[in-house]
Records
---
Amino acid sequence: MPLLTVTRRLTFNAAHRIHNPALSDDENARLFGKCNSPNWHGHNYTLEVSVTGEPDPVSGYVIDLAHLKQIVERSLLDHVDHHNLNLDVPEMAGTNPTAENIILMFWRVLEPAIRPRTLSRLKLWETENNHVEYDGR
Ligand code: NI
């Protein structure tokens, strides 16, 4: 049977501050620039969630993408959208909310939520120009 990958795109927005408390204020400012601004800033994020599998013989779907959207919203984005990633999201506690660390947290939440289907890739766009992707390795 052929293996196919389907992808759902979702958007959310959130505030954050890139800051490492182990470093001095000067070092943080030098390392992170505007992203270290003390009173937060926001991004309009785009998340792409990919699931890989064989198409179901009855529906012809790898996964119903409307169902996938529901899983991602209920298990993850409802707790993140319009929130402050540093203050409001327990899964990010103690973690510097770079796109890299955000996508790792997203994987930890989504991989079990999507089972028994296979989450094969996440892609997180922080701006139009910058994105990070992760395939679970
Ligand atoms: Ni930022």
---
Amino acid sequence: MADGDFPVLIEEVSIQKRVEQLAEEISRDYQGSDLHVLGVLRGAYQFTRDLSTKMGLPHTVDYISVASYGQETTSSGTLQLRMDMSKPIEGKHVLLVDDIVDTGITLNWLLDYLKSRRPQSIRTCCFLDKPSRRQVEVPTDYVGFPIEDVFVIGYGLDYQEKYRDLPFISRVSPEEVLI
Ligand code: IMP
Ligand code: MG
């Protein structure tokens, strides 16, 4: 893909407006409880940061990293913990924040893993959702935008590790996707 040649699917202002709405909703729902935000690296780094800064209630933030896609654009189904969280989540109200839920395999794996660490509650917040691609049923408690089955980039999402820095959501067309 030529640099600078990025069709805009979701504009930066729309992203920021939606993140603000989600942050307000989450703040309302967790009023009075100790919220622990757990972002999934690397895809959700921008979303987690923006969500966290827009939330009007005290909360803690941590990150976890799993290896899923590698260089490909379809899930391999095998997951590996790349970096564990830095603090235990036992007894905490955890909000798991991810960039996108596609087949659901990653979120499902993470939920299983985190539940074994006995949090008091756990909910998910995904910036994007591709419902038509789901292979595993997973709870999506907060969703930024549902999208069609296209491979998207930007706002933390990558294609072969590039384009995470784009402030808007763009797409990679099928003929450009090498797998
Ligand atoms: P799942 O396990 O199939 O749900 O895939 C989840 C992970 O795959 C996400 O956290 C992303 O890292 C990656 N992914 C899925 N779809 C896309 C996409 O359209 N663009 C970039 N990354 C994606
Ligand atoms: Mg990811």
